[in-house]
Amino acid sequence: MISESVLNFGYTLLDKVTGFSPLAVYSTYTSVVRQGLVPDFVLRLAIRALCRQRLREIDYGSFEANHAAKMQWIAKSRARETIADLTEKANEQHYEVPSCLGHHSRRIAALLILNMLQVSTDFILSCLGPCAKYSACLYPTGKETLEEAEVLMMEMYCEKAKLRDGQYVLDLGCGWGSLSLYLAQKYPRSSIIGLSNSSTQKLYIDAQAKKRGLNNIKIVTADVNIIDFVDCEQFDRILSIEVFLFSSMFEHMKNYDMLLRRISTWLKPSQYKGEDEDPDPSLLFVHIFCHRNMPYNFEEEDGWMAQMFFSGGTMPSHDLFLYYQTDLTLLSSSYLSGTHYSRTLEHWLQRQDANAGRGLKELEEDAEKKGKKGEGAKAFYRFRVFYMACSELFAYDGGQEWGVGHYVFKRKD
Which helix H or strand E contains 300, and what residues bound it? Predict the structure, then answer.
């Protein structure tokens, strides 16, 4: 059993040197973490303590009080005047960075900006699997390789969304195109539209599609607050898959009613009228991370994680979509243990460590080009802490507190 004093030491250390708590400030980083000298076991103990703290913060003492807090959160979300918050901030943190288009033809990924440092694309790609899927993968036995887990999760999307060749499909919040490219290759007679709010992502995906000889994919760049597909044919399927923890449309949503109302107009209306039920209605499939009970927002005063990675982000509760069915009907929902996410993150961490020499060199060279000598090593170790923090969060209590939600909706006609 780990003593309370060890836990307190780990908590205090992480608080002081990483800013990963509501009480810390990002500028308090010290050379200890910058040089990667804090043992992983200490960081992990501290992260677990912070997970317990978060659970205390969102527990209002009784089912009655928790439900009232959830209803208040929902009421506030419905009062929002915009669909998503801080899309520009999210871009600064994750998207709008130069991409190396000449290498890694099979790999795509998002970048993070840490302390205003644009991190090397090659570094991020070296952490990911061959599909470069920057989101939770699927480990049904727990023994899968990262490559196997990437494909298994995308195949699960295809099954749950009832995809087939010849459909008109929208990848809503397509990130760096892992799913869009996968679907374009799997379903050659389908037309795949990817929506991103990043011009960098569009350039990268276009280059990948050209290399793979795919001509059935198109990437559209637009702000979700204002986009409308008035000039497009309505879609047979719409999918929104979170890109790791950041770029999914739904993780940055603040007004679900407004978003789902807009999406409902993008889905094809049913051809069946009256009492006849459409055997193949147009569908929306959503993959998001979630807490099992309570929704909450990431506030910048929450510390380093919120400031650097989740500005404007939301942790929805698994049941949240039950309360947003004005324009779409929820047909099914399922919960995947957070252990799938945790294993994905541990694989990324292992790959980062395995490529540490090259990764550190790439980050340092990238930092020097930008006049930020020494920042590369800091970014390298912050990524390690980030992967560990997210892994511990989703592994908490065997993946039963935080995990992945899958949802299938149909349009109301």
Answer: none
- b/e sequence 164-183, b meaning 16+ C-beta within 10 Å: eeebbbbbbbbbbbbbbbbb
Residue 187 domain boundaries: 84-341+396-411
Distance CA 374, CA 407 (A): 44
Q: Is residue 253 part of a domain?
A: yes
Which pLDDT tens digit goes with each residue over 57-92?
999 999 999 999 999 999 988 887 555 544 444 444
Distance separating alpha carbons of residues 199 and 69, to the nearest angstrom: 38
Residue 384 token pair = 């390690």
Residues of the chain scoring pLDDT < 70: 1-37, 81-121, 224-226, 230-232, 243-254, 274-276, 299-313
Distance of alpha carbon 378 from alpha carbon 26, whole angstroms: 13
pLDDT per residue over 131-141, tens digit each? 878 889 999 99
How many domains are contained in the chain? 1
